[in-house]
Amino acid sequence: MNLIEKISKNRSVLENRLRELLAKPVFLIEADAFALPCGCHGMTINTRGLQVDDLEIFEEHITKYFKETSLELEVEPSFLFARLIPGTPELASLNSRVLCDRCYMDFARGSGKKPRPDIYILNLVRRE
Ligand SMILES: [Zn+2]
């Protein structure tokens, strides 16, 4: 299976698992792999129908499922987070990002689940 086929398959698997878990229509409308100039890389899944309440209630399961998706796509799930549509309870995306040293410092400096109003952290592995 090539990379695009893998992304495609995993998009669909995760969508089905989230629908089953939340018992409502959740749409994963796009899954992307990315690489940034700073060295960060990873994957982003744009979502429709997911809300911050869903994360708070089902965080353990959603994190587990997303971690598995990330591993399937060979992205180390060291930093998993959701991006929120500002000023709304709606999620814009789920993200798994392998942070470069500089971005790690930026994210690790904040504490708690919401270092910024548009970010909800599901998992951040602290470095030594
Ligand atoms: Zn970076």
UniProtKB/TrEMBL annotation:
UniProt-listed InterPro entries: Uncharacterised_MJ1658
Domain of life: Archaea
The name this protein goes by in its record: DUF5402 family protein
The organism of origin for this protein: Methanolobus zinderi
Classification lineage: Archaea, Methanobacteriati, Methanobacteriota, Stenosarchaea group, Methanomicrobia
